[in-house]
Protein backbone atom coordinates (compact mmCIF):
# COMPACT_ATOMS: atom_id res chain seq x y z
CA UNK A 1 0.00 0.00 0.00
CA UNK A 2 1.38 3.43 -0.94
CA UNK A 3 0.15 6.23 1.32
CA UNK A 4 0.04 9.70 -0.20
CA UNK A 5 -0.26 12.72 2.10
CA UNK A 6 -1.59 15.90 0.52
CA UNK A 7 -1.03 19.17 2.35
CA UNK A 8 -3.48 21.83 1.14
CA UNK A 9 -6.43 20.08 -0.49
CA UNK A 10 -7.51 22.99 -2.73
CA UNK A 11 -7.91 23.13 -6.51
CA UNK A 12 -4.60 21.37 -7.25
CA UNK A 13 -4.26 19.23 -4.10
CA UNK A 14 -7.91 18.16 -4.37
CA UNK A 15 -7.56 17.32 -8.07
CA UNK A 16 -4.48 15.18 -7.36
CA UNK A 17 -6.31 13.47 -4.49
CA UNK A 18 -9.17 12.63 -6.87
CA UNK A 19 -6.68 11.17 -9.39
CA UNK A 20 -5.29 8.79 -6.74
CA UNK A 21 -8.29 7.98 -4.57
CA UNK A 22 -9.81 4.58 -5.21
CA UNK A 23 -6.84 3.35 -7.27
CA UNK A 24 -5.60 -0.10 -6.19
CA UNK A 25 -2.73 0.05 -3.72
CA UNK A 26 -3.13 3.78 -2.99
CA UNK A 27 -4.41 5.51 0.12
CA UNK A 28 -4.84 9.29 0.26
CA UNK A 29 -4.57 11.37 3.44
CA UNK A 30 -5.51 15.05 3.32
CA UNK A 31 -4.24 17.63 5.77
CA UNK A 32 -5.55 21.04 6.70
CA UNK A 33 -4.88 23.21 9.73
CA UNK A 34 -8.62 23.79 10.00
CA UNK A 35 -11.00 21.22 11.46
CA UNK A 36 -13.87 22.43 9.19
CA UNK A 37 -11.73 21.79 6.11
CA UNK A 38 -10.84 18.30 7.31
CA UNK A 39 -14.53 17.59 7.71
CA UNK A 40 -15.24 19.00 4.25
CA UNK A 41 -12.59 16.79 2.56
CA UNK A 42 -14.12 13.70 4.14
CA UNK A 43 -17.68 14.75 3.32
CA UNK A 44 -16.81 15.41 -0.32
CA UNK A 45 -14.98 12.08 -0.50
CA UNK A 46 -11.80 13.52 -2.03
CA UNK A 47 -9.53 11.68 0.43
CA UNK A 48 -9.61 8.37 2.31
CA UNK A 49 -8.71 10.05 5.59
CA UNK A 50 -8.16 13.63 6.72
CA UNK A 51 -6.44 15.11 9.75
CA UNK A 52 -5.39 18.43 11.27
CA UNK A 53 -2.13 16.82 12.43
CA UNK A 54 0.72 17.54 10.05
CA UNK A 55 2.86 15.04 11.90
CA UNK A 56 0.35 12.21 11.69
CA UNK A 57 -0.12 12.70 7.93
CA UNK A 58 3.60 13.12 7.25
CA UNK A 59 4.75 10.11 9.24
CA UNK A 60 2.20 7.80 7.58
CA UNK A 61 3.24 8.85 4.06
CA UNK A 62 5.35 7.21 1.37
CA UNK A 63 4.80 10.26 -0.81
CA UNK A 64 4.07 13.78 0.45
CA UNK A 65 2.63 16.33 -1.96
CA UNK A 66 2.70 19.91 -0.72
CA UNK A 67 -0.07 21.86 -2.48
CA UNK A 68 -0.13 25.13 -0.52
CA UNK A 69 0.56 28.66 -1.85
CA UNK A 70 4.16 29.18 -3.02
CA UNK A 71 4.95 31.50 -0.08
CA UNK A 72 4.24 28.65 2.40
CA UNK A 73 6.29 25.91 0.73
CA UNK A 74 9.59 26.49 2.51
CA UNK A 75 7.97 26.55 5.94
CA UNK A 76 6.34 23.18 5.16
CA UNK A 77 9.73 21.72 4.22
CA UNK A 78 11.16 23.01 7.50
CA UNK A 79 8.31 21.49 9.50
CA UNK A 80 8.60 18.14 7.70
CA UNK A 81 12.24 17.95 8.77
CA UNK A 82 11.13 17.75 12.39
CA UNK A 83 9.17 14.53 11.88
CA UNK A 84 10.15 10.89 11.78
CA UNK A 85 9.38 10.44 8.06
CA UNK A 86 9.42 6.94 6.55
CA UNK A 87 12.76 5.96 5.00
CA UNK A 88 12.60 6.47 1.23
CA UNK A 89 9.79 9.02 1.55
CA UNK A 90 9.41 11.27 -1.50
CA UNK A 91 8.42 14.90 -0.97
CA UNK A 92 7.15 16.84 -3.95
CA UNK A 93 5.25 20.11 -4.40
CA UNK A 94 3.02 21.65 -7.07
CA UNK A 95 4.14 25.28 -6.81
CA UNK A 96 4.02 27.44 -9.93
CA UNK A 97 7.66 28.45 -9.39
CA UNK A 98 10.48 25.99 -8.90
CA UNK A 99 13.91 27.58 -8.35
CA UNK A 100 13.49 28.72 -4.73
CA UNK A 101 11.90 25.52 -3.43
CA UNK A 102 14.46 23.30 -5.17
CA UNK A 103 17.19 25.43 -3.60
CA UNK A 104 15.54 25.21 -0.15
CA UNK A 105 15.24 21.42 -0.43
CA UNK A 106 19.02 21.10 -0.60
CA UNK A 107 18.86 21.82 3.14
CA UNK A 108 16.95 18.58 3.79
CA UNK A 109 19.25 16.61 6.05
CA UNK A 110 18.21 13.00 5.66
CA UNK A 111 19.79 11.35 2.61
CA UNK A 112 16.97 8.77 2.45
CA UNK A 113 14.29 11.47 1.95
CA UNK A 114 14.03 12.74 -1.62
CA UNK A 115 12.61 16.08 -2.68
CA UNK A 116 11.56 16.37 -6.32
CA UNK A 117 10.05 19.69 -7.41
CA UNK A 118 6.82 19.46 -9.42
CA UNK A 119 4.44 21.72 -11.34
CA UNK A 120 1.34 20.39 -13.03
CA UNK A 121 0.90 22.94 -15.80
CA UNK A 122 -2.85 22.98 -15.85
CA UNK A 123 -5.29 24.70 -13.63
CA UNK A 124 -7.89 27.38 -13.76
CA UNK A 125 -8.86 30.74 -12.41
CA UNK A 126 -10.99 28.95 -9.83
CA UNK A 127 -9.72 27.79 -6.45
CA UNK A 128 -10.58 25.56 -3.52
CA UNK A 129 -11.48 21.90 -3.29
CA UNK A 130 -14.93 22.75 -4.72
CA UNK A 131 -13.26 23.34 -8.10
CA UNK A 132 -11.15 20.15 -8.00
CA UNK A 133 -11.51 17.58 -10.77
CA UNK A 134 -9.85 14.26 -11.51
CA UNK A 135 -9.66 15.37 -15.17
CA UNK A 136 -7.77 18.59 -14.54
CA UNK A 137 -4.36 17.33 -15.63
CA UNK A 138 -5.35 15.01 -18.47
CA UNK A 139 -3.07 15.59 -21.44
CA UNK A 140 -1.41 18.59 -19.79
CA UNK A 141 2.31 18.87 -19.10
CA UNK A 142 3.56 18.03 -15.62
CA UNK A 143 7.04 19.43 -15.01
CA UNK A 144 9.41 17.67 -12.60
CA UNK A 145 12.68 19.30 -11.57
CA UNK A 146 14.86 16.52 -10.10
CA UNK A 147 18.17 17.40 -8.48
CA UNK A 148 21.35 15.80 -9.82
CA UNK A 149 21.44 13.66 -6.66
CA UNK A 150 17.85 12.44 -6.98
CA UNK A 151 18.05 8.64 -7.24
CA UNK A 152 16.51 7.14 -10.42
CA UNK A 153 14.48 4.82 -8.24
CA UNK A 154 12.72 7.75 -6.48
CA UNK A 155 12.11 9.48 -9.78
CA UNK A 156 10.59 6.31 -11.25
CA UNK A 157 8.33 5.87 -8.21
CA UNK A 158 7.03 9.43 -8.48
CA UNK A 159 6.56 9.23 -12.25
CA UNK A 160 4.66 6.00 -11.92
CA UNK A 161 2.35 7.55 -9.32
CA UNK A 162 1.78 10.66 -11.42
CA UNK A 163 0.72 8.53 -14.38
CA UNK A 164 -2.67 8.46 -12.64
CA UNK A 165 -3.04 12.14 -13.59
CA UNK A 166 -2.79 11.23 -17.32
CA UNK A 167 -0.45 14.22 -17.72
CA UNK A 168 2.73 14.19 -19.80
CA UNK A 169 5.74 14.33 -17.54
CA UNK A 170 8.66 16.52 -18.60
CA UNK A 171 11.91 17.01 -16.73
CA UNK A 172 13.43 20.45 -16.64
CA UNK A 173 15.93 22.60 -14.82
CA UNK A 174 14.17 24.67 -12.14
CA UNK A 175 15.57 28.04 -13.28
CA UNK A 176 14.71 27.37 -16.89
CA UNK A 177 11.21 26.43 -15.74
CA UNK A 178 10.79 29.78 -13.97
CA UNK A 179 11.97 31.72 -17.04
CA UNK A 180 9.62 29.93 -19.42
CA UNK A 181 6.59 29.74 -17.15
CA UNK A 182 7.20 33.37 -16.18
CA UNK A 183 6.74 34.33 -19.84
CA UNK A 184 3.86 32.06 -20.79
CA UNK A 185 1.82 32.14 -17.58
CA UNK A 186 2.91 34.69 -14.97
CA UNK A 187 3.30 37.61 -17.38
CA UNK A 188 -0.10 36.97 -19.04
CA UNK A 189 -1.75 36.93 -15.60
CA UNK A 190 -0.22 40.33 -14.83
CA UNK A 191 -1.22 41.74 -18.21
CA UNK A 192 -4.80 40.47 -17.79
CA UNK A 193 -5.07 42.12 -14.37
CA UNK A 194 -3.56 45.39 -15.62
CA UNK A 195 -5.91 45.47 -18.60
CA UNK A 196 -9.00 44.80 -16.49
CA UNK A 197 -7.97 47.46 -13.98
CA UNK A 198 -7.35 49.99 -16.77
CA UNK A 199 -10.85 49.41 -18.13
CA UNK A 200 -12.29 49.35 -14.59
CA UNK A 201 -10.99 52.89 -14.08
CA UNK A 202 -12.57 54.14 -17.33
CA UNK A 203 -15.76 52.44 -16.24
CA UNK A 204 -15.87 54.57 -13.09
CA UNK A 205 -16.74 57.48 -15.38
CA UNK A 206 -18.95 55.59 -17.82
CA UNK A 207 -20.60 52.24 -17.10
CA UNK A 208 -20.86 51.47 -20.82
CA UNK A 209 -17.29 50.14 -20.70
CA UNK A 210 -18.36 47.23 -18.56
CA UNK A 211 -21.54 46.71 -20.49
CA UNK A 212 -19.80 46.43 -23.85
CA UNK A 213 -16.84 44.45 -22.54
CA UNK A 214 -17.98 40.97 -23.51
CA UNK A 215 -16.62 38.45 -26.01
CA UNK A 216 -12.93 38.91 -26.68
CA UNK A 217 -12.31 41.06 -23.61
CA UNK A 218 -13.87 38.44 -21.43
CA UNK A 219 -11.84 35.67 -23.07
CA UNK A 220 -8.43 37.24 -22.80
CA UNK A 221 -8.99 38.46 -19.25
CA UNK A 222 -10.43 35.23 -17.74
CA UNK A 223 -7.26 34.66 -15.75
CA UNK A 224 -7.59 38.10 -14.10
CA UNK A 225 -10.15 36.37 -11.84
CA UNK A 226 -7.47 34.09 -10.36
CA UNK A 227 -7.02 33.77 -6.60
CA UNK A 228 -5.20 36.91 -5.35
CA UNK A 229 -3.14 35.26 -2.58
CA UNK A 230 -1.91 32.46 -4.84
CA UNK A 231 -0.74 35.02 -7.44
CA UNK A 232 0.79 37.40 -4.89
CA UNK A 233 3.06 34.55 -3.83
CA UNK A 234 3.91 33.43 -7.38
CA UNK A 235 4.82 36.90 -8.64
CA UNK A 236 6.86 37.86 -5.59
CA UNK A 237 8.66 34.52 -5.67
CA UNK A 238 9.52 34.92 -9.37
CA UNK A 239 10.26 38.61 -8.91
CA UNK A 240 13.60 38.83 -10.74
CA UNK A 241 12.28 37.00 -13.79
CA UNK A 242 9.10 39.10 -13.77
CA UNK A 243 10.99 42.40 -13.62
CA UNK A 244 13.05 41.37 -16.67
CA UNK A 245 9.93 40.22 -18.53
CA UNK A 246 8.06 43.45 -17.70
CA UNK A 247 10.99 45.42 -19.05
CA UNK A 248 10.70 43.49 -22.32
CA UNK A 249 6.94 44.03 -22.22
CA UNK A 250 7.47 47.78 -21.93
CA UNK A 251 9.65 47.59 -25.04
CA UNK A 252 6.88 45.75 -26.92
CA UNK A 253 4.36 48.41 -25.92
CA UNK A 254 6.85 51.18 -26.76
CA UNK A 255 7.18 49.76 -30.22
CA UNK A 256 3.39 50.05 -30.65
CA UNK A 257 3.55 53.64 -29.39
CA UNK A 258 6.21 54.47 -31.98
CA UNK A 259 4.33 52.78 -34.79
CA UNK A 260 1.20 54.75 -33.91
CA UNK A 261 3.09 58.03 -33.53
CA UNK A 262 4.52 57.49 -37.02
CA UNK A 263 1.29 56.04 -38.45
CA UNK A 264 3.47 53.06 -39.40
CA UNK A 265 0.81 50.82 -40.94
CA UNK A 266 3.40 48.46 -42.39
CA UNK A 267 4.91 47.93 -38.94
CA UNK A 268 1.52 47.28 -37.36
CA UNK A 269 0.63 44.77 -40.06
CA UNK A 270 3.99 43.08 -39.64
CA UNK A 271 3.46 42.77 -35.86
CA UNK A 272 0.07 41.13 -36.31
CA UNK A 273 1.36 38.84 -39.08
CA UNK A 274 4.40 37.72 -37.06
CA UNK A 275 2.30 37.12 -33.95
CA UNK A 276 -0.34 35.24 -35.95
CA UNK A 277 2.26 32.97 -37.56
CA UNK A 278 3.87 32.11 -34.21
CA UNK A 279 0.50 31.53 -32.60
CA UNK A 280 -0.56 29.24 -35.42
CA UNK A 281 2.48 27.10 -34.70
CA UNK A 282 1.53 26.60 -31.05
CA UNK A 283 0.81 22.96 -30.28
CA UNK A 284 -2.87 22.39 -30.88
CA UNK A 285 -5.24 20.62 -28.61
CA UNK A 286 -2.57 20.19 -25.98
CA UNK A 287 -4.19 21.00 -22.69
CA UNK A 288 -2.09 23.67 -21.13
CA UNK A 289 -2.06 26.97 -19.46
CA UNK A 290 -4.29 29.83 -20.52
CA UNK A 291 -6.18 27.67 -22.95
CA UNK A 292 -9.63 26.27 -23.05
CA UNK A 293 -9.63 23.00 -24.80
CA UNK A 294 -11.91 20.76 -26.69
CA UNK A 295 -14.43 23.52 -27.27
CA UNK A 296 -17.08 23.82 -29.88
CA UNK A 297 -19.31 26.76 -30.67
CA UNK A 298 -22.97 26.40 -31.42
CA UNK A 299 -24.96 29.06 -33.15
CA UNK A 300 -28.30 28.97 -31.43
CA UNK A 301 -31.28 31.23 -31.30
CA UNK A 302 -31.08 33.19 -28.05
CA UNK A 303 -33.98 31.68 -26.18
CA UNK A 304 -34.32 30.13 -22.78
CA UNK A 305 -34.46 26.36 -22.79
CA UNK A 306 -31.86 25.90 -25.49
CA UNK A 307 -29.13 25.01 -23.00
CA UNK A 308 -31.38 22.36 -21.48
CA UNK A 309 -32.16 21.01 -24.93
CA UNK A 310 -28.49 20.73 -25.84
CA UNK A 311 -27.62 19.19 -22.48
CA UNK A 312 -30.29 16.50 -22.92
CA UNK A 313 -29.24 15.78 -26.51
CA UNK A 314 -25.68 15.21 -25.29
CA UNK A 315 -26.80 13.40 -22.13
CA UNK A 316 -28.94 10.93 -24.12
CA UNK A 317 -25.84 9.97 -26.08
CA UNK A 318 -23.75 9.87 -22.88
CA UNK A 319 -21.42 12.60 -24.11
CA UNK A 320 -20.07 14.40 -21.03
CA UNK A 321 -19.63 18.13 -21.29
CA UNK A 322 -17.30 19.87 -18.86
CA UNK A 323 -18.54 23.43 -19.27
CA UNK A 324 -21.12 25.45 -21.11
CA UNK A 325 -20.95 29.21 -21.51
CA UNK A 326 -23.09 31.81 -23.19
CA UNK A 327 -20.93 34.23 -25.15
CA UNK A 328 -22.63 37.57 -25.18
CA UNK A 329 -20.91 39.01 -28.22
CA UNK A 330 -20.81 37.47 -31.65
CA UNK A 331 -18.11 39.73 -32.92
CA UNK A 332 -15.13 37.42 -32.69
CA UNK A 333 -16.43 33.93 -32.16
CA UNK A 334 -18.66 32.05 -34.49
CA UNK A 335 -21.67 31.23 -32.36
CA UNK A 336 -23.18 32.04 -29.07
CA UNK A 337 -22.77 28.96 -26.90
CA UNK A 338 -19.36 27.60 -26.07
CA UNK A 339 -19.42 23.97 -24.94
CA UNK A 340 -16.27 22.39 -23.53
CA UNK A 341 -15.49 18.70 -23.42
CA UNK A 342 -12.76 16.60 -21.91
CA UNK A 343 -11.42 15.01 -25.07
CA UNK A 344 -11.41 15.34 -28.82
CA UNK A 345 -13.55 12.25 -29.31
CA UNK A 346 -16.38 13.86 -27.33
CA UNK A 347 -16.03 17.09 -29.36
CA UNK A 348 -16.32 15.10 -32.60
CA UNK A 349 -19.32 13.10 -31.41
CA UNK A 350 -21.05 16.20 -30.03
CA UNK A 351 -20.42 18.15 -33.24
CA UNK A 352 -21.94 15.37 -35.35
CA UNK A 353 -24.97 15.11 -33.09
CA UNK A 354 -25.62 18.84 -32.69
CA UNK A 355 -25.15 19.54 -36.41
CA UNK A 356 -28.45 17.81 -37.04
CA UNK A 357 -30.17 20.60 -35.06
CA UNK A 358 -27.87 23.64 -35.02
CA UNK A 359 -25.04 25.33 -36.81
CA UNK A 360 -21.85 24.08 -35.17
CA UNK A 361 -18.30 25.47 -35.41
CA UNK A 362 -15.39 23.44 -34.09
N1 LIG B 1 -4.39 27.57 -9.57
C1 LIG B 1 -3.78 26.94 -10.55
O1 LIG B 1 -4.30 26.91 -11.63
C2 LIG B 1 -2.47 26.27 -10.28
C3 LIG B 1 -1.82 26.41 -9.07
N2 LIG B 1 -0.62 25.78 -8.85
C4 LIG B 1 0.03 25.89 -7.54
O2 LIG B 1 -0.67 25.04 -6.66
C5 LIG B 1 -0.62 25.51 -5.33
C6 LIG B 1 -2.02 25.55 -4.76
O3 LIG B 1 -2.81 26.39 -5.54
P1 LIG B 1 -4.38 26.15 -5.72
O4 LIG B 1 -4.70 24.71 -5.50
O5 LIG B 1 -4.76 26.81 -6.98
O6 LIG B 1 -4.92 27.01 -4.52
P2 LIG B 1 -6.19 26.80 -3.59
O7 LIG B 1 -6.42 28.10 -2.93
O8 LIG B 1 -7.29 26.14 -4.33
O9 LIG B 1 -5.62 25.77 -2.52
C7 LIG B 1 -4.61 26.09 -1.61
C8 LIG B 1 -4.67 25.15 -0.42
O10 LIG B 1 -3.67 25.54 0.52
C9 LIG B 1 -4.28 25.83 1.77
N3 LIG B 1 -3.66 27.04 2.28
C10 LIG B 1 -3.86 28.31 1.87
N4 LIG B 1 -3.13 29.16 2.60
C11 LIG B 1 -2.49 28.41 3.49
C12 LIG B 1 -1.61 28.71 4.52
N5 LIG B 1 -1.21 29.95 4.76
N6 LIG B 1 -1.13 27.68 5.25
C13 LIG B 1 -1.51 26.42 4.99
N7 LIG B 1 -2.35 26.08 4.03
C14 LIG B 1 -2.83 27.07 3.27
C15 LIG B 1 -5.75 26.07 1.51
O11 LIG B 1 -6.52 25.69 2.61
C16 LIG B 1 -6.01 25.17 0.30
O12 LIG B 1 -6.31 23.86 0.73
C17 LIG B 1 0.07 26.87 -5.39
O13 LIG B 1 1.42 26.70 -4.99
C18 LIG B 1 0.01 27.24 -6.87
O14 LIG B 1 1.12 28.03 -7.25
C19 LIG B 1 -0.06 24.95 -9.78
C20 LIG B 1 -0.69 24.75 -10.98
C21 LIG B 1 -1.93 25.43 -11.33
O1 LIG C 1 -6.34 28.98 -16.12
C1 LIG C 1 -5.32 28.98 -16.81
O2 LIG C 1 -5.35 29.03 -18.03
C2 LIG C 1 -4.01 28.90 -16.14
O3 LIG C 1 -3.04 29.43 -16.61
C3 LIG C 1 -3.98 28.14 -14.86
C4 LIG C 1 -2.66 27.95 -14.25
C5 LIG C 1 -2.29 28.75 -13.19
C6 LIG C 1 -1.09 28.57 -12.55
C7 LIG C 1 -0.25 27.58 -12.97
O4 LIG C 1 0.92 27.42 -12.35
C8 LIG C 1 -0.58 26.76 -14.00
C9 LIG C 1 -1.80 26.93 -14.65
Provide a descriptive summary of the structure in words.
By secondary structure, this protein is of the alpha/beta class. The chain folds into 3 domains: 171 residues, Rossmann fold, CATH 3.40.50.720; 105 residues, 6-phosphogluconate dehydrogenase C-terminal fold; 67 residues, ACT domain (Alpha-Beta Plaits, 2-Layer Sandwich), CATH 3.30.70. Helix content is 47%, strand content 16%. It is built from 14 helices and 12 strands. Strands 3-2-1-4-5-6-7-8 form an 8-stranded mixed β-sheet, with helices on both faces. Strand 2, helix 2 and strand 3 form a beta-alpha-beta unit. Helix 7 packs across helix 11. The longest helix is centred in the middle third of the chain and has 32 residues. It is globular. About 2% of the residues have low confidence. It binds 1,4-dihydronicotinamide adenine dinucleotide (NAI) and 3-(4-hydroxy-phenyl)pyruvic acid (ENO). 3-(4-hydroxy-phenyl)pyruvic acid binds next to loops. The site of 1,4-dihydronicotinamide adenine dinucleotide (NAI) has 26 residues, from helix 1, strand 6 and helix 10. It comes from Paenibacillus chartarius. Its EC number is 1.3.1.12.
Q: Which geometry do the CA atoms define?
A: globular
Query: Number of DSSP strands?
Result: 12
What is the CATH class designation of the largest domain? Alpha Beta
Radius of gyration from the alpha-carbon trace, in angstroms: 23 Å
Q: What is the CATH superfamily label of the largest domain?
A: NAD(P)-binding Rossmann-like Domain
Q: According to CATH, what is the topology of the largest domain?
A: Rossmann fold
Order of helical and strand elements: EHEHEHEHEHEEHEHHHHHHEHEEHE
Note the total helix count. Answer: 14
Intertermini distance: 44 Å
Biggest sheet, in brief?
8 strands, mixed
Catalytic activity: prephenate + NAD(+) = 3-(4-hydroxyphenyl)pyruvate + CO2 + NADH
InterPro entries: 6-PGluconate_DH-like_C_sf (IPR008927), ACT-like_dom_sf (IPR045865), ACT_dom (IPR002912), NAD(P)-bd_dom_sf (IPR036291), PDH_C (IPR046825), PDH_N (IPR046826), Preph/Arog_dehydrog (IPR050812), Prephen_DH (IPR003099)
Protein name: Prephenate dehydrogenase
Family: Belongs to the prephenate/arogenate dehydrogenase family.
